[in-house]
Specification:
With 204 residues, the protein is an alpha/beta fold. It has a domain of 138 residues: Rossmann fold (3-Layer(aba) Sandwich), CATH 3.40.50. The chain is 47% helix and 21% strand. It has 8 helices and 9 strands. It has a 5-stranded parallel sheet, with helices on both faces. The protein binds guanosine-5'-monophosphate (5GP).
């Protein structure tokens, strides 16, 4: 039976740990693919073109907007980020499970353009812990730290737009919750009912 794939959208303030959760799950789960975004920000240490992001100039990014190449795009902390539309929609159509790790502005656009998406929000246990995690990363100045904390709270206030939330305190628990959500969504009746009925009918 051909089953359409699922599109999962994962957001949460930077430092909540969405990257870690996704990385851990990707290690021993070939069930889903992480979409690689396009960005105008400069590569950080050890980031690889085509693996972490497709790094582009602002001019190239603007061309891509013009050519309607994005499922969504947004300006985050003075840089542009976008999800390549064709790759993602074709993969979902083929039956693959695709995961987008994007900010709330982008998630809201995906909700409009692809309402069947499943939206997961990752929360830090406390704001103090979030601050610690951002500081530990060591790439922030006082000013950008302040900016990130304010924008973190702003993002959290949009949580109600999402279908699920995970409070990322103990990583192992968060991973279990994440996997359970993926599993449950794959068993959702409404998303699969037409194909399932067709298959059973053909076998009558
Ligand atoms: P970073 O620069 O730390 O890798 O990412 C900064 C923010 O941009 C994160 O909140 C991340 O989720 C978001 N982001 C990454 N890729 C995309 C994308 O394709 N679209 C949108 N809207 N946000 C993205």
């Amino acid at each position: 039976m051909h089953k359409k794939g699922n599109l999962f959208v994962v957001s949460g303030p930077s430092g909540a740990g969405k990257g870690t959760i996704i990385r851990e799950i990707s290690k021993n789960d070939n069930d889903f693919k992480l979409s690689v975004s396009v960005t105008t920000r400069a590569p950080r240490n050890k980031e690889i073109e085509g693996v972490n992001y497709y790094f582009k100039t602002k001019e190239k990014f603007m061309d891509m907007i013009e050519n309607d190449e994005f499922l969504e795009y947004a300006e985050v902390y003075d840089n542009f980020y976008g999800t390549p539309k064709k790759l993602v929609l074709e993969a979902v159509e083929k039956g693959e499970t695709i995961l987008l790790e994007i900010d709330i502005q982008g998630a809201i656009q995906v909700k409009k353009n692809y309402p069947e998406g499943i939206f997961i929000f990752i929360l830090p246990p406390t704001m103090a812990e979030l601050k610690n995690r951002i500081i530990e990363r060591g790439s922030e100045t006082d000013e950008t730290l302040k900016k990130r904390m304010l924008s973190a709270f702003h993002e959290i206030s949009y949580m109600e737009k999402y279908d699920y939330f995970i409070i990322n305190d103990v990583l192992e628990d968060s991973i279990k919750s994440f996997k359970s959500i993926i599993k449950a969504e794959k068993c959702r009746v409404m998303a699969n009912v037409k194909n399932l009925l067709k298959t059973y009918e053909e076998e009558l």
